[in-house]
Write a structure and sequence with these properties.
With 270 residues, this protein is of the alpha/beta class. 42% of the residues lie in helices and 23% in strands. Strands 6-7-8-3-9-10 form a six-stranded mixed β-sheet, sandwiched between helices. Helix 4 crosses helix 5. It is globular, with a radius of gyration of 19 Å. Bound molecules: adenosine-5'-triphosphate and magnesium ion. Magnesium ion binds next to helix 2. The site of magnesium ion (MG) has 3 residues, from helix 2.
Length: 270
């Protein structure tokens, strides 16, 4: 009886994110649907039959040990990697080899661990290149819009600086502004703070927390569990090519079920 009660409580905790999404008006539209996704590099299977639905505006955090497939999963969403098997739908449209570039351009932006800014371009040029070249926006309008986003990440005064003259935290905030300027509906973050000196982590997380108040669908690979607690509608834990547990950040703090999850959390939380 006791164990039945315990497992009922565990179930409630696991499904709570979906209730939360419904309550706050999210979860009505599936922004991303991943069906039976597998990815192999040669003989090396790195994602094994992943199924995942992400609602419009949802904030999803992905955690898990090195090599478990976190980066590969998010890189399949924007087709930086081609799935070996399975299907990905974005806004109900199947991503195919034919439309993949168009779909990525239309829906997704990515923030990388190593910022990936163009070193020979100024901050402002880094922000205007995609709107001008990919979206056909005039230079004047692109610069106006870029300045608004630089203001938002607190770096308007660095518009004419080059990346090498900025701190890591500042470069990552520029990279976030660059992701925002194209007004994509989905932003993928791949460990955006893990290359930063500890004192710069918070300034980047603060920008991400601000961003989480908008209806952008955010998928963040990060081990910053404080951030997850603050913004995540749902956290998924990956291990060895698969999603092995999901729930709220609270669930992972207080009631993780899987032994591997417990071991992993004991390492990152202490
Ligand atoms: N381009 C590639 N070619 C061959 N193997 C790859 C490639 N990219 C990733 N892999 C392999 O796929 C597996 C999953 O890698 P992935 O980068 O997705 O893991 P991860 O969970 O993001 O790890 P980390 O926390 O270290 O970033 C690893 O075994 C990795 O070596
Ligand atoms: Mg990775």
């Amino acid at each position: 009886m006791q164990s039945y009660k315990k497992s009922k409580e565990a179930c409630k905790e696991i499904y709570r994110p979906f209730f939360r999404l419904k309550i706050c008006g999210k979860g009505v539209i599936n922004m991303i649907k991943i069906k039976n996704l597998s990815k192999a590099y040669g003989d090396n299977l790195v994602l094994d039959n992943i199924n995942l639905e992400i609602a419009e505006g949802e904030k999803l955090v992905i955690i898990g040990p090195s090599g478990s497939g976190k980066s590969t999963l998010i890189r399949c969403i924007n087709r930086l990697e081609a799935p070996t098997k399975g299907e990905i739908f974005i806004a109900d449209q199947l991503v195919t080899n034919k439309n993949k570039t168009e779909m990525a351009k239309k829906y997704t932006a990515m923030v990388f661990q190593q910022f990936n800014l163009y070193p020979h371009k100024t901050v402002l040029q880094n922000l205007t290149i995609a709107p001008i070249k990919l979206q056909g926006i005039s230079k004047k309008d692109a610069e106006k819009s870029a300045m608004i986003y630089l203001e938002r990440v607190g770096l308007a005064n660095k518009a004419n600086a080059y990346p090498q003259n900025l701190s890591g935290g500042q470069q990552q905030r520029v990279a976030i502004a660059r992701a925002l300027v194209t007004k994509q509906k989905i932003i993928l973050f791949d460990e955006p703070t893990s290359a930063l000196d500890p004192e710069m982590v918070q300034e980047v997380l603060d920008v991400m927390v601000e961003l989480s108040k908008e209806n952008i669908t955010m998928i963040c690979v990060t081990h910053e569990m404080g951030f997850a607690r603050q913004v995540a509608d749902r956290v998924i834990f990956m291990d060895d090519k698969r999603i092995v547990e999901e729930g709220t950040a609270e669930h992972f703090f207080t009631n993780p079920q899987n032994e591997i999850t417990k071991l992993f959390l004991s390492k990152i939380l202490h």
